Amino acid sequence: MSKKRYTLLKKEGKARRGRFETPHGTIETPVFMNVGTLAVIKGAVSSMDLKEIGCQVELSNTYHLHLRPSDDVVYKLGGLHKFMNWDRPILTDSGGFQVFSLAGMRKIKEEGVYFSSHIDGRKIFMGPEESMQIQSNLASSIAMAFDECIPNPSTRDYVEKSVERTTRWLERCKVEIDRLNELPQTINKEQMLFGINQGGCYDDIRIEHAKTITKMDLDGYAIGGLAVGETHEEMYKVIDAVVPHLPEDKPIYLMGVGLPSNILEAVERGVDFFDCVLPARNGRHGQVFTKNGKINLRNAKFQLDATPIDEGCECPACKNYTRAYIRHMFVAKEMLAMRLCVLHNLYFYNKLMEDIRAALDNGCFKQFKAQKLKEWDGRA
C-alpha cells in the first residue's frame, strides 16, 4: 500500500483543492510546476528567483540530465536538490516524452528504447529499470514512470499495443523503484512514483488503462499523450473520460499543458498538477501574459510605453521596469530582457494557481474562471 500523501480539502463540481506531502515539503494544489529541463530554467533564472516568484515545484528532465552532466555526476554531488540549490519538491519526467519528440532517433522494443543522442549521436538505451535508476540517482521527490508518449492521431491497433507495453513497463518501474528505495546508498529513500495514463484519443482505451493502473496503488497518476497534435476540445474530452476512473485520494497530473485557459478548463475537470515550457519559452521571445491577454514586447508600439508589463503585477520585472525599457533591451539583444520576461511569465502562472486555489477555498471557482477567460479575451 502506498502511504497516504494527498489530502482532498475541498471540491467545487469536479474541481479539486488539495494538499500533497512529499519528502521535500508540502505542495498546495492545483499547482503549476516550473520547467527546468537541465536543472535550470532557461532564461537566466536562479533557484532563489524561483522562490521569489512563488514556485512550489521544479521539474527536470531524466533523458537530458542523463546525457549531461550525467546522473552519475548529479548523484556524486548529492542529488538534484543539492546540485541546483533547491530545497522544495522536484518532479523528474521519465524520458517517455523523448520517445515521442525524438521519434526519428529511436527504436522501441519490449525491453525499452534505443536512442541516438541528439547531442553527439552516441547510442543510449533506456528502459523502465534504467529510467528508475537515473531518477533515483537524481533523487527527485517524484519520479515518473517510463512510458511511450503516443502521437495524435495514431491507429487504434498501434495505440492498443503501445498502451499494453506501457502497462508492462509501469509494473517493471514499480518493482525497480521499490528495490532502489531499499538500498543503503540511495539518496532519497522515499522517492515517489506516478503512473501515466495513455490511449491517444480513444476514450475506451483510456478508461480501461486508467482502471488498470489505479489497481497498482501508486503515489499519483498522470494523463499523458496530450498536447501532441489533438485539438483543445479533444483534449478536454479525454480528461472528462479519464478523471472519473482515477483515484480521488491521489493527485492527477496533466502532462505538458499549457495555456492559462487550458489550465482553468482542466482544473474544472479535476486536474491537480500542470507543467509546460510555454511561459518560459514565450518569455524568451518577448511574448508576455497579462491580465488582458498576451502581448509581444518586441512590437514597435511599446517604444514609448512607460507602463509595466502588467499593471498591479508584483513580479520583479513589473515592480522595476517599463515595457519601453524591456523592448529596448530586446532590440539591443540584451539578456536582461529575456530574463525579466521569463520571470514575469512564471510569476503570472504561479500567481494564477494561487488565485485558483483561493477561488476554490472560497467556493467561487466557476465565477473566477468565467471572469479570467473574459479578461484574457480582451473584452473586460
From TrEMBL:
Residues 14-376 form the tRNA-guanine(15) transglycosylase-like domain. Zn(2+) binds at residues 313, 315, 318, 344. GO terms for cellular component: cytosol. Pathway: tRNA modification; tRNA-queuosine biosynthesis. The keyword Transmembrane does not apply. Its EC number is 2.4.2.29. The active site is at residues 93, 275. GO terms for biological process: tRNA queuosine(34) biosynthetic process. Homodimer. Within each dimer, one monomer is responsible for RNA recognition and catalysis, while the other monomer binds to the replacement base PreQ1. Belongs to the queuine tRNA-ribosyltransferase family. This is Queuine tRNA-ribosyltransferase. It comes from Clostridium gasigenes. The gene is tgt.
